[in-house]
Amino acid sequence: MEPEQRQRIIGYFLAETQEYLELLEPGMDDLAGALADEERISELYRAAHSIKGGAAMLALDGIQRVAYRLESTLKFMKTTPVT
After folding, report:
1. Do residues 34 and 27 make contact, with C-beta atoms less than 8 angstroms apart?
2. Over the stretch 29-74, which tens digit does the pLDDT of each residue have?
3. CA 39/CA 10 separation, integer angstroms
4. Which has the least CB within 10 A, 24, 48, 61, 65?
5. Sign, Cα dihedral of 49, 41, 74, 30
6. Which residues of 12-49 are buried (b: 16+ CB within 10 A; e: fewer)?
């Protein structure tokens, strides 16, 4: 891939990731509320999953690892009942 093309794609990734982070931040701030809402926790999970996938395609390993950990944590929270 040409460097200019890669930079353009990274720009798209960053713009998309900013939108996902704007969704994730309030959800993580109110995690107890998000856990009570199955739709909301699924939305947070999908955002983390999308960031992970985009980072993997661009070989942004650090971002991919962090997004993977967040995705895994959200999946656990989504599938494990709170007692």
Report:
1. yes
2. 998 888 888 899 999 999 999 999 999 999 999 999 999 999 999 9
3. 29
4. 61
5. positive
6. ebeeebeebeebbeebeeeeeebbeeeebbebbbebbb
